[in-house]
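Sample 1 of the test manifest.
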Amino acid sequence: MNWQLVPQKFIDGTLQGGVLALIAIGIVLIYRSSEIFNFAQGHMLMVGAYLTWMFAQIIQNFTDSKGIVLTIAVILAIISAIILGFLIERFALRPMTGQPLLSIILMTLGLSQLFEGLISLGFGVEPLQGFPTVFSSADSFKIPIAPRADGTPIVFLNQLTIPYTRLAAFVVALIACIALILYFRYTDTGLSMRATSENHELARSVGIRVPRVFGLSWAIAGIIATLGGILLASISGVSTSLALVALAAFPAILLGGLESFAGAMLGGVLIGLAQALVQASKLIEVRNSFDIAPYVLLLVVLVFIPEGLFGEKRIERI
Amino acid sequence: MAALRPAGDYDESYIRDMSFLRRPWMNWFTWGVVIIIFLLPFLEIWGLISSANAGYARYTWWMNILNRIAYTIVALQGLNILTGLTGQISLGQAAFMLVGGYISALAMTHWGLPIVITIPLAAIGTGLIGLLFGLPSLRVKGFYLAMATLAAQFIIPWLSRNLWKDYLGGTNGSIVAPVPTIFGYEFSGSTNMFIISFVTLVITSVLFNNMIRTKLGRAFVSVRDNDLAAELLGVNLFSYKLKAFYLAAAFAGIAGALRAHTERGIGTEFNYTLDISVLFLGMLVIGGMGTNLGPFLGAIFVILLDEGAIILGETIAHAFPDQAGALQTSFRPIVFGVTLIIFLIFEPRGLAHRWYLFKAAWRLRPFAR
């Protein structure tokens, strides 16, 4: 390990993990209400980022203030994400009710292929420039850390950098996560979603409209995906590879346990940390492994604690 | 499909009861089709078609497609064993193809083995890697297992870029796969490779179709339908699941070896991504999971559709040259995604089921709807 890099990577990982946690929560949300594993979450996220970019390009013609552009673009993107979520639920997943797991997983994979094609048809395959951000990527907190008495630095370049964009992404992700947890615990619709996830028939018999709950959960998942897309895009730009970044959220939810929001958050942060900390290694092979580190961790979790850290232990063992 | 047999069509001997081609005409028909397809590449080899002919470009295009269909069917048969028969979802078939391609290419380059040996070697080696990633199936199933195979889909290509860089190509992402030779004849290009692919396909089809009705195949189906009941009936779950993983990876390895020698190279540069694994699962569902015909129908249908989408994209790209890059690539995922969604909603049992219905309707005409 290159210990001088570790504190900086620790910060980077935690901040990146926050965004992963938000994506993971979107997947957990849909799983909890309808027991569907949404492999299309990454592509919904990508669609959200592209829509925000498109709206921002349109609004830039009318005003110069970056804050206003971003606000209106985000609001418009979230409204379209809600509509998209409802449409997906109504036309793709409601006909699949009662089908086996594989068919439903394949349906979400088919949706993701469709989104990928539509996005590259509408916006081209090249990464897009000019995503509206409030902070530039150079703006950052710099925390100076004095070197040791003999002059060797404790951290690389004697300072820790916390970029504003990453910090803002982490804070937004954290607020969204907490808001969702509160929503599920204290509101009627949140409670009815939890009831539906437990038992569809019982939920119907106490007067919950199950199809509406499904639609609502997809709409909320769309909002979360769009938020995640905006946050990721403000860090790394708008491109079709955003969908692949989001796949790392799956190891996060397995690590945290499928049913638990808190678990998904912790899992996201841990995956982010794993991705960042391997980059502090001195071996180039280990440094390169940052994009598979989540999956190695995933295999370890599957073999040793398949129910995850906070999951319910009702996983079907064989 | 014994269930759809017309009334009065009895089996008069045990041999006929057990045979796939129950009537002499079926026998003649099947062998006729197999021989005609087998003879297609010889049109060029014997000089009946050459670059001087008008239809030569179209001929090579079709041979290229046929070769792709042949090795895709082999990979799909493997996936059909694992997902269709045993019910274990695999998102890693493309990664196993990568392993098979590497094994065959390396064995041929460094040991000078002929392709008749490297293909079985690729099957055995890839199967062992498949076993490794099948190990989590000891403890988990369903979605969790899908995640384990997803891990394989990411870890295997990464390893191929970062381990044994002298042999696996390192950051280049590819190594050269040599031209296979048998008795001094060089099988270069799709037209020649189609001979090898097609012979392999015939062998794997015979193996697959017979495997389904042995103890092994029936045990697979019982694991899929109800694993607890299967275990009570004396099916060792773990061992049969691992066998399914082994066979699926082995078939993928064969397909990967064929693809590597056709494309003359193997590595992550040659597109063995998650999208390809998803494409395989989609093909299997569109063709019909767990059926003999499924891999054939699915591969033919989806690959032809894929080519249609490419032609459509290029036609439109001619009309709008400023958008050419986006138009050429974006129709393939759209067409595939829409087809998959339509099939999942309206015909989840796939084209094979449609084909059986059509056969029954044909027999019952004019009374069928």
